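Per reviewer request, we include the raw input and output of the structure prediction for the construct analysed in the revised manuscript.
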Amino acid sequence: MKSGIAELEAKGKAAKAASRRLAYLPTEVKNKALNSISKELVAKKGGILKANEIDYKAGEAAGMSQAMLDRLMLNSDRIEAIAQDVLTVADLPDPVGEVFELRTLPNGLQIGKKRVPLGVIGAIYESRPNVTVDISALCLKSGNAVILRGGEEAVNSNTVLAKIVREAAEAAGVPRGAVQSIDSIDRTLVQHMLKMRDVIDLLIPRGGAGLIRLVKENASMAVVTGGIGVCHTYVDKSADVAMAVAIAFNAKVQRPTVCNALDTLLVHADIAQQYLPLIAEEWAKAGVEMHCDEASRAILKSVSGLKLVAATDEDWGKEYLSLKAAIKVVRSLDEALEHIERYGSGHSEAIVAGDKAAAARFLNEVDAACVYANASTRFTDGAQFGLGAEVGISTQKMHARGPMALRELTSYKWIIQGSGQVRP
C-alpha cells in the first residue's frame, strides 16, 4: 500500500513539474505531439485491441451490463475515430496565450486578460477507454498536465493507451511527466488522489452516480461533475410528425448506452394519437421497451408487436442507458416544461416543434447544459460540437457547462501594462 501511495505522490510531483513547462510550450510542439499520438494509435491498433479483448471478456465473465460492455468495447472503427478526434484537437486554435477584453483605462493603464492553463487535471473515470486519449489530447493542447485513473474494468486497455500517448508526446518534445496514469486497481489510491490538492488543480470524474458522488463529497480540490443524463424529447402539437419520428428514433436507438440518449418521450395530447403509433413501431423494430403512462398505453395497446410496460414513478427521472424509454402524454407545453424541471438532470433536452414561439420558449426556459429545437440530443458531444473531444459533459453552472473542451480547461490572468503610473 505504501509503495502504491508513494508512486502516486511521485507521479503527482512529476505532473506538477511538467505543468510549469507545459504552460508556455509552443503550439507547434503540442500539435506535433498530437499528430504523433494519432499516428501511433492507428499503428498500434492490434495491441490495443488485444488488451481490450482481455478487459471485455473479463467484463462479460463478471456479469457487466450491456451498457457498460458497450462503453468498454473498442474495435477498429472506434480506434480510427479516436485517432481522428486527436487530429481535430490538433487543428483547433490554441487557447493558451490569447489576450482578450483588452482596454485602456483613463489613467493610461492598458489592462486585459490572458488565457492560461489550469495546471494539473486529475481524471477518475469508468469503463470508456477512449477517455484516456480524449482527456490526454485536450490537456496537452490546453497546456495542462494530467493524472489519469481509469476503472478496473478497463485497466489493460487504459494501460496500453496511456503508454502510447505518453511515449508519443515525449518523443515530440512534451515535458516528461505531463501524462501520468495510475495503473493500480487499488481503490484506496482514489481516496488518496482526492486529497492531493497541492498537486491537482481540477478533478473531473466520469462514470456512474456512485463515482461522481464519491468524488464530489470527498475531493479537497475543485471538481467539475456531470455525465448523468436524464434526457427528454418533447413533441409539441405543432411538430412535423416525420421529423419527430426520426429525431426520437435517433435519440433513443443510435447509441442507447450513452448519457445523451433519450430517456423520456413527452408528447402533446393533440398529436399523440397520430404520432405515438408511428414512433412506437419504429422503436419496436429496434427492440425498444416502452414504459408508458396510462394515456400513451391506451393509444398503443392496440398496436401489435410492441414491448409495453406500465410506467411507475421510478420511470420518471431515470437514466436507462439501454433500449428502454418512458413515454408520457402531456396536455401543454407548460406541463412538459414542468416535467423536465422536476425530473431532468440538466444535461440535454429537446423540443420538436413547428411553432417558432413554442421552440423559442423551450430554449429560453429549460435549464440544461444543452437545449435543442428540432434536433436529436445525441449531438451533445465535444467532437459533434466541433471541439475535437471533451473531458466530460458538465451539468454544473460554475466554470464550465456542457462539453468541456479546450477553453474550459483554461483560466486567465490579468495583464496590466503601464508607463510609470502610481496610485494616488
